[in-house]
């Protein structure tokens, strides 16, 4: 029996942190089940990536070449299928990257297996592989196992320690003919770090609430100042940006909006549940449907004009009762 770990390289031919995390989980599973571990790499040039994880004690396979540099369903699927057919695994584990999330369900169809995606863990229990997955927006963690094989699994980032163990790797090249594939990759457009304000790896979450767009003491709104203040803070700290539902909903109601906010930023019961170490809430009331999204954020601070706001009801560690426009302006000055 074999556990196959699949990874694709990044544009600089390295392996992403989430790929290294998944290798830790795959290796532990193979050891727990007492089975062989195989590594399958897909990318333009996989040799350096193979060496960075050469110490994992697996048999290595690779599909390499310019055709496999970028994510493309047909070539990623063909490569994964060829590697799987070379080692006939019972379990296939891969990081839940956008590339694999797209391609690997198709692998389950081709191999007549089953797929489970976005897992939060995988382990051997009583000689069986058991996967963990969050349900109901991370309120419940379920465990599941399946009898069907091959069982294809993708693991979310942040659920294991990244594997570290370089070494020489004896890689078996697997050739895949994708000359008949009609989809051509025209190029990649990456958003700049500053344009992308949702940063799951950031230490700090900064939440903007609807107060930023409300009439202030002078009777006027100052959305342009709010935008600049928030963006200056994010640029200086590289914090991740979150929002309350009220603020992201304003666009639908024709109000003045913070231009870089989308519904993807919404934190809360009907939004996301991020996992940053610290959180700073600004101009957000701290109502329960919002604060439930802070479940995993341990160190919490909030700035609000209202000393009786939701945050004051035991929902944050420090509440600064004051004007967020003035406080954040000062903070930005201090950050330089
Ligand atoms: C079923 C359901 C699901 C929901 N899901 C979510 C969810 O997922 N996420 C979510 O966020 N909400 C959710 N809500 C809505 C939630 O209950 C609140 O309505 C929402 O979070 C309020 O957003 P807010 O605090 O930004 O706005 P407001 O309630 O308008 O609060 C604005 C705050 O800004 C403060 N303020 C104004 N000016 C300043 C200033 N200059 N300095 C400092 N503070 C200032 C005010 O004192 C006020 O506290 C849900 C509601 C329901 C019923």
UniProtKB/TrEMBL annotation:
Domain Electron transfer flavoprotein alpha/beta-subunit N-terminal: 3-185
Gene3D superfamilies on file: HUPs, TPP-binding domain
Domain of life, source organism: Bacteria
InterPro entries named among the record's database cross-references: DHS-like_NAD/FAD-binding_dom, ETF_a/b_N, Rossmann-like_a/b/a_fold
Pfam families for this protein: ETF (PF01012)
SMART domains the record matches: ETF
UniProt keyword terms in alphabetical order: Electron transport, Transport
Official protein name in the record: Electron transfer flavoprotein alpha subunit apoprotein
Organism the protein comes from: Pseudodesulfovibrio indicus
């Amino acid at each position: 029996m074999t556990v196959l770990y699949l990874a694709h390289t990044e544009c600089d031919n390295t392996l992403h942190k989430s790929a290294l995390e998944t290798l830790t989980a795959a290796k532990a599973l193979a050891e727990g089940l007492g089975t062989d571990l195989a590594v399958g790499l897909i990318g333009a040039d996989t040799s350096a990536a193979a060496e960075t994880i050469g110490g994992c004690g697996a048999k290595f396979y690779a599909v390499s070449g310019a055709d496999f540099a970028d994510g493309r369903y047909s070539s990623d699927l063909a490569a994964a299928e060829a590697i799987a057919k070379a080692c006939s695994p019972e379990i296939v584990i891969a990081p839940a990257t956008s590339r694999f999330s797209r391609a690997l369900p198709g692998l389950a169809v081709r191999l007549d297996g089953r797929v489970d995606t976005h897992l939060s863990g995988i382990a051997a229990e009583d000689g069986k592989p058991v996967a963990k997955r969050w349900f109901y927006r991370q309120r419940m963690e379920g465990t599941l196992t399946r009898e069907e094989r091959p069982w294809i699994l993708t693991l979310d980032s942040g659920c294991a320690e990244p594997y570290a163990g370089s070494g020489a790797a004896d890689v078996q090249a697997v050739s895949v003919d994708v000359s008949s594939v009609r989809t051509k990759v025209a190029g990649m457009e990456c958003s700049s770090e500053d344009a992308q304000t949702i940063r799951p790896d950031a230490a700090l979450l900064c939440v903007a609430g609807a107060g930023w767009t409300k009439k202030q003491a002078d009777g006027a709104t100052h959305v342009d100042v709010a935008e600049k203040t928030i963006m200056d803070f994010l640029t200086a700290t590289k914090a991740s940006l979150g929002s309350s539902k009220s603020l992201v909903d304003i666009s639908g109601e024709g109000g003045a909006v913070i231009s870089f906010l989308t519904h993807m930023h919404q934190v809360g019961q009907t939004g996301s549940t991020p996992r940053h170490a610290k959180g700073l809430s600004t101009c957000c009331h701290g109502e329960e449907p919002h604060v439930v999204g802070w479940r995993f954020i341990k160190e919490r601070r909030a700035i609000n004009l209202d000393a009786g706001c939701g945050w004051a009801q035991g929902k944050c560690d420090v509440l600064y009762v004051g004007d967020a426009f003035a406080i954040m302006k000062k903070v930005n000055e201090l950050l330089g």
